[in-house]
Amino acid sequence: MSKTIASCRARHWLRRGFVILDTETTGMGEDAEIIEIAALGCDGEVILNTLVKPINPIPVEATAIHGITNEMVAGAPSWPEVIGQLILAVGEMDYLAYNSDYDSRLIRQTTLMHYHDIANLFRPFIEGHDCVMRLYAMYRGEAGKGSGYKWHKLVNAAKHEGVVIDSPAHRALADCRMTLGIISAMAKGGAE
Predict the structure, then answer these.
(1) pLDDT value, residue 190
(2) 124 Cβ neighbours under 8 A, 6+ residues apart
(3) Which of 129, 143, 166, 172 could serve as a FRET partner for 120 with CA atoms 20 to 30 Å apart?
(4) Structural domains of the chain, count
(5) What is the pLDDT of residues 27-52, one digit of tens each?
């Protein structure tokens, strides 16, 4: 039954034309900030795909994961230049992300670094998200820790669903495309 529910939800996302987001960051901690962000329509249209110049240098450990260097972001727009484009790209709907809690947290953190006093103005946007990873866990239906379902890494989920992406993982647009492929696969499945 959980596979059918997940499949129906995925079809809803596709029909309504939700926007899929992904970010690449300087790390995972409380001081991490966004250095790349992409937004992709459920029709596959690239809505936004940009590097972002961070306040602080990119640690070599982060570069080792996504390949984004300080030189690459030196001429990129800053977060205040990007967040307006992002909000326009998403519009009135909630956005989707594979691990939406993480992306939402990084959007909030990066926004707070630039807008200390008015960051709450962005709260409805920042908090309006659905998590594809959670839905995919329900779709797969494998028991996880406690009473929940097992979560799967994006690359592993894409591989399991036969999603082929010709760009390297851990770049925002490629990860958006993998996420769209997983949503599409869930939308086609669901018959138990």
Answers:
(1) 56
(2) none
(3) 172
(4) 1
(5) 999 999 999 999 999 999 999 999 99
Q: Are 37 and 126 in contact (CB under 8 A)?
A: no
Residues β-bridged to residue 34? 25
Q: For strands 129-131 and 95-97, give the pairing.
A: parallel
Whose structure tokens read 């790209």?
89
> How far from the centroid of its chain's Cα atoms is residue 185's Cα?
17
Least Cα distance to 78 among 103, 98, 53, 99 occurs for: 53
Average pLDDT (13-26) is 96
Helical packing angle, 2-16 and 172-188, nearest 10°: 120
- Read off the pLDDT of residues 95-130 as tens digits, 9 standing for 90 and up: 999 999 999 999 989 998 988 766 567 777 778 899
- Residue 136 identity (one-letter amino acid): Y
Query: What pLDDT does residue 105 have?
Result: 93
Tokens encoding 179: 């996420």
Place of tokens 């995925």: 10
Closest CA to 31 of 126, 121, 106: 106
Looking up residue 49, the CATH number of its domain turns out to be 3.30.420.10
CB 73 within 8 A of CB 82: no
According to DSSP, the residues that pair with 130 across neighbouring strands are 96
* Residue 44 region by backbone torsions, left for phi larger than 0, else alpha for psi between -120 and 50, else beta: left
Which residues form the domain of 122?
Answer: 2-188
